[in-house]
Structure formats: structure tokens, C-alpha cells
Amino acid sequence: MSSSQNLMDLEVNQSVYDVLQGYDVGDVIGKGSYSVVRKVTDKKTKKNFAVKVIRKDALQDNLKYVQQEIRIMTDVSVGHPNILTLYKAYETDEFFLLLTDLAEGGELYDCVCAKGQFNEAVVKCIIRQLVSAVAYIHKNGIVHRDLKPENVLLECRDDYTNLWIADFGLANILNEESRGVLHTMCGTPGYMAPECIRQLGHAQPVDLWSIGVITYLLIAGFAPFERQTPALEMRAVLKSDYTFPSDVFQNISDECKNFIKSCLVQNPNDRITAEDALRHPFLKE
After folding, report:
1. Which residues form the Protein kinase domain (predicted)?
2. Which of 1, 110, 148, 202 gets the highest tally of CB atoms within 10 A of its CB?
3. What is the distance between the alpha carbons of residues 253 and 19, in angstroms, rounded to a whole number?
């Protein structure tokens, strides 16, 4: 069955509406290869939410990632204002349904595409929220592993004062079983830390590398390791092959550039931690 057929089935399957009978089901606001996201409104409170409807038989090998995402978001999403809240998770024979905050502002990625570059004050506001959320999940033994603008959502369009980290599908828990180290290569090449590419074991420092890439991207309008192919991007990451072009960074503070450098350190043991990042002069309030 094709993904388009799967999506069509999501539109009409009665079991989905049976689960959501307490909500007015609105428009489709997003689609993925195995999911549809709709706006829904609680009939009693009139509060708006988003519901992600995921078809199980389209997941195939990705089923474990959805189950892991539900477990992690159930544990941490209500504990920090900059993590997308999972209010309820439903499961039927055919579907998972995840009821979350409604991000009416869309993805940070869309804002990057529209604006190109952000001024330093706005970047500081955005990154401080992300680092605060990352510090919280790290404190709870979780590593996100796929931080990028596509996984950062805005509550309202062009309002950068309330952001949510979303998509914990590649996140994992550091526990006794993992011995505090993960080995699966995952993430998006341009944002992936060198130790993840090398598959020699990685942990929470990979998220700070991604934070450094995002900071650079917001300032410059392009990513530090942006190349023509993913393979070339990964090669650039492994060599720390990036610069601060003077025409882009001439009016950017030394504190901002130092923050980026502190995140983009090859050795994860020497990389800045999330807690220390919050105290960095660039982010310090």
C-alpha cells in the first residue's frame, strides 16, 4: 500500500474519530510518510491541540521509535515549557494518536527559509530556550539526537519567545543497560556530531554540537558544514571544516562566536555542557 493510500485511510477511518469523540476534528496541518497531523478542539474547554495520527502498518521497522518517543515524552514533556507537551497517547489496533500542543507558528525551519538571517538578540532568545530544554532532558538521562530547526516549533508565527523542541523519535535514554553510551548512527548529517558519525559511542554532548550548528545557521543563514551532498557534509564535520566569513559575522559579538566554537568541539569530553552553556556570556541573562 502506498503512503498516499495510507494517508487517505487516515482521513476516513472511523476508529480515529471514535477515539477523538471528545474533540472537534479540524483541518490537516501536516503530513508525513506514515502520519497525519490535525488540529482538534476540546468540546468542553474549547482549547486547541494537535493530534498526530500514526498508522502502525506503515511504520514497519520504525515502530520501536514511536514507542520510545511516547515513553520519553510521557516522562519529560510536562516538566519544561520549551518541550512540546504530550497530553495523551492513544493506541488502537491500527493507530497511535498523540495529543500535543498546537504549534500554530509552524517550524523554525520555515522561518529560516523565509527570513534567511536573524539578528543576534533573537538568536540569543531562541538558543537560550533550546539549551534550557536540552539541559532539562539531559538531567533526566535523555539525549535527543536529532536537534535541528525542523524539530523546533513555534507557538505563534514570528514570535520567538515561546518555542518547543519536538520529535523525540530518535531520542534515547542513557541508563545502566546502555552504560551511558549509545552507538547507533542517527540524526541529520549537517547537524550530526563527529562521534556519532564515527560510531565509536556517543552520549549527551551530541545535542550541544547540534545547538552550535543551529546557532551558526540562524546567524549566517546557512549551516557551517553545508555542502553539496550528505557525504561531503559529514566529511566537513569530521574535519571541523567551517569558518566565520567576515561579511556575515563582522557585526556579531565575540561571545556569540565563542559560544559556537564551544559547541563545535571535536572531542565530546571537551565540549560545553548544557548547564555550562546556560552560564556562557552569550546566553547569560
Report:
1. 23-283
2. 202
3. 52
Taken in order 66, 31, 216, 285, the sign of the CA dihedral is negative
- Distance CA(127)–CA(207), nearest Å, equals 12
Please tell me whether residues 13 and 61 are part of one structural domain: yes
Residue 27 annotated as catalytic = no
Is 211 in contact with 138 (CB distance < 8 Å)? Answer: no
The residue segments making up the domain with residue 79 are 3-100
Query: Which of 65, 100, 135 is the endpoint of a domain?
Result: 100
**Domain endpoint, select from 71, 100, 129:** 100
Please tell me the pTM assigned to this model.
0.89
Query: With the C-alpha atoms ordered 97, 130, 260, 106, is the resulting torsion angle positive or negative?
Result: positive
Pick out the residues of the known binding site for ATP: 56
> Residue type at 276?
D
Kindly give, in sequence order, each residue whose CB lies less than 8 Å from that of residue 185, ignoring residues fewer than 6 positions away: 192, 196, 197, 199
Buried b / exposed e along 90-110 (16+ C-beta atoms within 10 A): eeeebbbbbbbbbbebbbbee
Indicate the DSSP class of residue 83.
Answer: B
